[in-house]
Automatic annotation (TrEMBL):
Major enzyme class: hydrolase
Subcellular location: Secreted
Protein name: Neuroendocrine convertase 2
GO cellular component: extracellular space; membrane; neuron projection
Stored PROSITE patterns: P_HOMO_B, SUBTILASE, SUBTILASE_ASP, SUBTILASE_HIS, SUBTILASE_SER
Function: Serine endopeptidase which is involved in the processing of hormone and other protein precursors at sites comprised of pairs of basic amino acid residues. Responsible for the release of glucagon from proglucagon in pancreatic A cells.
Entry-linked CDD domains: Peptidases_S8_Protein_convertases_Kexins_Furin-like (cd04059)
Keyword Disulfide bond: yes
Transmembrane segments: none
Amino acid sequence: MRKPPLFLWKAVQQEGFIRRKRGYRDINDIDINMNDPLFTKQWYLINTGQADGTPGLDLNVAEAWELGYTGKGVTIGIMDDGIDYLHPDLASNYNAKASYDFSSNDPYPYPRYTDDWFNSHGTRCAGEVSAAANNNICGVGVAYNSKVAGIRMLDQPFMTDIIEASSISHMPQIIDIYSASWGPTDNGKTVDGPRELTLQAMADGVNKGRGGKGSIYVWASGDGGSYDDCNCDGYASSMWTISINSAINDGRTALYDESCSSTLASTFSNGRKRNPEAGVATTDLYGNCTLRHSGTSAAAPEAAGVFALALEANLHLTWRDMQHLTVLTSKRNQLHDEVHRWRRNGVGLEFNHLFGYGVLDAGAMVKMAKDWKTVPERFHCVGGSIQEPEKIPPSGKLFLTLTTDACEGKENFVRYLEHVQAVITVNSTRRGDLNINMTSPMGTKSILLSRRPRDDDSKVGFDKWPFMTTHTWGEDPRGTWALEIGFVGSQPQRGVLKEWTLMLHGTQSAPYIDQIVKDYQSKLAMSKKEELEEELDEAVERSLKSILSKK
């Protein structure tokens, strides 16, 4: 609204009235009554400012619950170190038929006992998803009427491809969502991902699971902090998984958060604050409860719970529908990244390099899911490839471009993007000093690889590694893509880029994107108009002040 000119201002007796901060809520104002003792400490469910948190910064599950969605009819598999299925807060929701122990090869995925309770991880994750409500025990699961299956597969000296593949493909017609809070070592120098059998199992899962609608794989993005990059984790950066990062209860990043362009969204976990109640409250081994569940390990199960609510709202959702819903309903809310700015991509979708498209909003997701129409068929196009060796300068950067028609005129034409992969082969004298950025034809810059100061590799490099970005979601891929690669360490390095292949994945139609673009353009035009009006008002005020001062 334009301000009146200075000469129209006059003294008027003002009346006092009430204004409230939006987002502030008293837990008693929300019509959710639970007698579980830890419920009021589960700030990630309903954040009223507990443990010095930011009121309103939560998963908005209250709205989904009030609409009647609690995860009923949905089964979530926790791929981990086992589940204490005798726990009184889990027993009623435990799906024994869908459970298995691949570490011991038996149907009883009970955690192996250790004096330090090392194998409590899976039990804690299970409680976040499916802990029963109103039973006076511990807290409440995000989807407290869902069923939880235990898939014990982490507790052996070494992982094998067969164990991973068997776990990921276990009971795909009964288990709807698989939650994985594990991956390659988060030491800042590992580049690793699924092997052949596991890749095939994941492909079969998204194509054949849930009666052809696709298994939904939720993955923790990693706990390597600023020393690591989750695009070096082939599980979190897979197109077939929904990679989830975390925020703490005041909206900042956790110190262990890894950033990368493949992260789709975020939920909540602990970090930075010493307040013992700033962690994640959930079930613990041997019938106990805890306030101290932590890491992106805690974030992924929360997301699995939100997706269970969405599946109850619409059991016809495919694995890709769930990704689209995540992009469209996640919110910036009050998330704050001190390193990476929030940006908008070419169609106006707001994203952040660490938080993805924002924090999951259960209320918004179930409402959109209820009437959601399955997304169109997915196509894959090789947008182009450069395979001539190119030297990376010791100082400065190597710039390369690829111009693509995105297979226009062919059956596999991609008009609206979902995932984009840059398949890269590069060697350097120090892999950890490499920095790789890619910019889309619509001007969206994705950071494919950040510096990893602990990675001293000088031999292996990256061999046909599929760096992935979700930040160009909905964009038109036709035009010129730019790759920028250089070194960011303190010492000069040498390197050679041997391959850059652009892989485009998406649809030929996506009506909702057109509406998003229209709304975005309308908002831009309106904001520019308001800026011009403000500039005009300020100019008038300056002129009037100048005239009055002369009088």
